[in-house]
Structures are given as structure tokens and as C-alpha cells.
């Protein structure tokens, strides 16, 4: 009996000593008496609570370590992040490309511009425009300020990734103070509805409402029909009769053919696609990579369009 009480006392005393070694002198004697009277059940309960406390402490320490590691990762300088890998393009000469992200594509992105198809005057004219001045076809007016970086964006209104990238590029351009300029190319690859909306967007540009039309369509869920386009046109204060007539203008088709020819030259098979200065990107890319590419292009001033 005495031996059993001794073991109980020793067990419980060890538990309490392990909890911080706070029991000294008279306090230790008091704790020993209390534990001896409470017998083994009190010892087991105390030890169980001690184990739970230690487990909680370990969990908290682990959470702190994870948070510290994440914070350290977020604070790592850009120089320690993976470098952007460039690959030179054989055609068009003077350009390069990097790997991009997700895309949307149709079954035959370049249907109608095959060398085996019957000659189309508009297709031939589009090819000549790109051959004569690929920089003008990509970026429009000639560059006048070396500090300005030009971007050519190719998108489809039915492409979900285009909606994300178009919004991102618009914000980057608006915050740049004129140092970034985006030229928007319509590349309708996802069916007749895509082509109808693309033509309406180019027609809206003739009334100075391209940005407003683009923003509306990139944020709306819709089925492209003439009635729907008429409603959108009226809500934006456009002349729909003029818009409808402009959509049938061969020059609108020519603009689409030029964009399609540019996409073919760069090997873009889906949307979104992007040319930043001299760098081509197929697929959606994030803001960090986009701004890093802009900074690289501004610094290097390379390529035939610099």
C-alpha cells in the first residue's frame, strides 16, 4: 500500500515538476500532500491536461512557423524569383516569346486563310499590310516617345480568360501615366457570335465608343443577336443604324483579317494573346509577369518596333 502511494506521489510530482519546475520548498510539500490525497485519478487528469497543453503549444508554434515562412516568401526580392525565359522567333524576325497560360480556341482558328483556299482580295490585302509594316499593323501609329511601351492584345468576347486579362491590361494602361499604350485586336475564334460582337466593337470605335462597348461586353453575360446589340448600342448612346451599316463595311472585315494574319504570323492559336514590345505571349499571364515584361522592354528597347 505504501509502495503504491509512493508511486502515485512520484508520478504526480514528476508531472508537476515538468510543468515548469515551480514547486519548491513548502509549495512542493503542499503539492505532494494534495496529490497523495487525490490519488492516481488526479495524477492522470493532470498529466492529460499537460499533454493537451503541449499539443496546443506545438500547434501554435507550427502555425507561427508557417506564417513566418509565407511572409518570408512574399518578401523575397524579385531577383530571387524564377527568371523569365525568352525564346527567339524565326518569324516574325526581331521578336521573341515566352510561355503563357490558359487559352480559349476554336476548332479552326485560321480557316479561310489557307493557301489552298480560293484567293480572297481582302485576305491578300491584309497579308500585304502586315508584310509592309508589321509594327504599324500591330501597334498603329509610330512610336514617338522611347519611354512608352506598346502592347497589342488579341481577344475574343466569348473567351473567359480574355475578360480577366483585358481588365488587367486596362488598369495597367490607366495607371501608367501614358507610359503604356494598349492596342486592341479583335480575334473572334469561338464562332459566329464572337465574330458578330467583334464587328460591332470595331463599328463602335468609329463612333468613339470602343472602350465603353468593350467594357460592357467584357462584363456581361450575353447571347449575341442583332436585337441584343441594338439594346447595348442604345444604352451607350450610339446610333445603331450607323453601327449596323458599319458592321457590313468591307473595311471592318479587313481589320479582322489583319488581326488574324498577325495572329497567324506569331503562331497564336487561341485567345488571349499578347505582344509586349518585342515579346509575344500566348495565353493569360498575371500582373507581376506583365509589369515585369513592360519594365524589361522599356529598359532594353530592342526589336524592330522599338
CATH structural architecture of the largest domain: 3-Layer(aba) Sandwich
**Uncertain regions spanning at least 5 consecutive residues:** 14-48, 70-80, 111-115
Number of domains: 2
The secondary-structure class comes to alpha/beta
Terminal residue distance:
95 Å
The backbone outline, from C-alpha atoms, is globular
What is the CATH T-level topology of the largest domain? Glutaredoxin
**Helix fraction bin:** 55-70%
User: Strand count, sense and closure of the main sheet?
Assistant: 6 strands, mixed
CATH superfamily of the largest domain: Glutaredoxin
- Beta strand %: 5-15%
CATH class of the largest domain: Alpha Beta
| Strand count | 6
What value does the average pLDDT take? Answer: 81
Topology, please?
Elements: H1 2-20, H2 25-74, E1 87-88, E2 96-98, H3 121-132, H4 134-139, E3 149-155, H5 160-175, E4 180-186, H6 192-205, H7 210-218, H8 226-235, H9 240-247, H10 250-266, E5 273-276, E6 279-282, H11 287-300
Parallel strand pairs: 2-6, 3-4
Antiparallel strand pairs: 1-2, 3-5, 5-6
